[in-house]
Prior knowledge:
The chain is an alpha/beta fold. It is 29% helix and 26% strand. An 8-stranded mixed sheet has the order 5-4-3-6-7-9-8-10. It holds the Pfam family MTS.
Amino acid sequence: MSGFVFKQFKVAQTRSAMKVSTDGILLGAWADLTTSQRLLDIGTGTGLLALMCKQRKPTMQVNAVEIDANACADAQQNFTNSPWPDIKLMQKAIQQVTTTAEFDVVISNPPYFNASLKGQDLARNTARHTDNLSFSELITAFKHLSHQNAFLNVILPCPEAQLFIAQAQLQGLYLVRHCLVQTTATKAPSRSLMCFAYQMQECELTSLTIHGQGAQYSDEYIALCKDFYLKM
């Protein structure tokens, strides 16, 4: 697919290794932006998460960082052609990013393959594998760029999510929201939507089923994502 059309913006993805996915749409719709005035999207790819968050809260200052030049080209095109061309894009590794104004919310659909076999596509390997951005490095970057009342939102497959939770705890972060996502009611959860904070509080645990009867989207998935999908 060369592009993806949403209700308020389009996503060109001819150059990006990682295309628009249900994971990204889930995270962009689920992340809590209530207290956010400054948001950072780490590993923006096509710019999907930055665009979704900006649509949800147009007054928010949105920054995006991406290491891959081809993905940056797509993201910049998508930002420029959107209703929010003021989204700021940085082409660099997150480990090299500094800021004078700390972020309220950080969001990321991070690479998560640790030991799996790699393909021939180097850009796709970078986007999918943790070699260039480990869980520990992502959490360290969040702590370096945010303040004590900030939140970190990520989505990961459930096994990797447990590794991420453990790493976050080692670095003094606490899981405060956790949504277990299953594709259908008869299948085990396959994805974890997670929000971490500096302050300990009781974790809000919820669940979400994407598909109801047949191939139709469930009512709860429609309620979460209806502001974005063109035909929903």
